Structure formats: C-alpha cells, structure tokens
Amino acid sequence: MKQMSFAAVVMFFAVIGLLTIGQAAVQGTVKETANFKILVPNGWEFSDFGNGKLQTYNKMGSFMVELSIGGNNMTEADIKSQVATFVKNNKGNGPDKVTMFGLSFDKTTYDKSSMHMSYFWALKDGKKITISLLGPSHETDTTIQEVLKSIQIK
C-alpha cells in the first residue's frame, strides 16, 4: 500500500512538473523576412522596416528585440572599430565575445535614457549583423530569452 501511495505521489509531481514546463514556453508566431526569422510572442508587435531591420516589442514598450543587417565588404577591423566607438560613447561594458547562431558576436551591456540594453555585433559574408535587446531584466526575462533563442540568420 505504501509503495502504491509513493508511486502515486511521484506521478503527481511528475505531471505537475511537465505542466509547469509547458506553461513556461512562450507562445507566438514566427515571422520571416529576407534576412531573418524570429518568434513574435502573442501580444507583441512586429515591424519589418524593409531595409534589413526588424523589431518585435511588447505593447508597453518595455521590452524589445531588434535585428539588422547592413554594409558591404565589411571586415573584422571595421566591426572592432564600430564596437569600440559604441562602447565608449555609451559607457558600455566589455565588449565580451559571445557565440550564437554559428557566429562570433561582440557584446556590450549599458544603460541609456533609463533603459537597460544589450547590443551584439557580428560579421557575416561582409555584412554587419546587429542584435539589440532592451528591457529592465532582458538578461533573465523568459520571453526575451525565448525570442533571442528563436532567431535564425539567413
């Protein structure tokens, strides 16, 4: 009898755990442009500016993910120079090296106009790829992190 009760309790917690994991997943729609794919969470807005730049953001404007691609025949030296200038002008940290989506990004985190942001730069086929994250806790916010993980760079 005790073994049966123990098994029932273990099964109960296993089911609750699975339900909790399922609820943590961010629901939304994947949007695609010529250069990117990205998850747009339910209740968020999406803007494709048609110039290699897109944004998805919550309606309150407190969280945002922005992607862009631009430039031609850029080099690592070009990116390094832009990163150094940006970090200095915005009093950012780093830059740190981060590998995402098969690319090596330079990353800085900074505060500007009372907003907390992270900015990433990488080079792909002579073009600069940038990713901006905005929000008070974007480093740990589940929705922002799921959007970031969803990015596909073409």
Task: Describe the protein.
By secondary structure, the protein is of the alpha+beta class. It has helices at residues 2-24, 76-90, 142-150; strands spanning 28-32, 36-41, 44-48, 53-58, 64-70, 96-100, 103-112, 115-124, 127-134, 152-153. It has a 7-stranded antiparallel beta sheet, with helices on both faces. Strands 1-2-10 form a 3-stranded antiparallel beta sheet. The protein is globular, with a radius of gyration of 20 Å.
Number of helices: 3
Strand line-up across the major sheet: 3-4-5-9-8-7-6
Any low-confidence stretches, pLDDT <50, length ≥5? 6-23
The percent of residues in helical segments reads 25-40%
User: Radius of gyration over alpha carbons?
Assistant: 20 Å
Overall 3D geometry? globular
Secondary-structure element string = HEEEEEHEEEEHE
Averaged pLDDT, please? 87
Total number of beta strands? 10
Strand content bin: 35-45%
Helix and strand content put the structural class at alpha+beta
Main sheet record: 7 strands, antiparallel
Distance between the termini: 58 Å
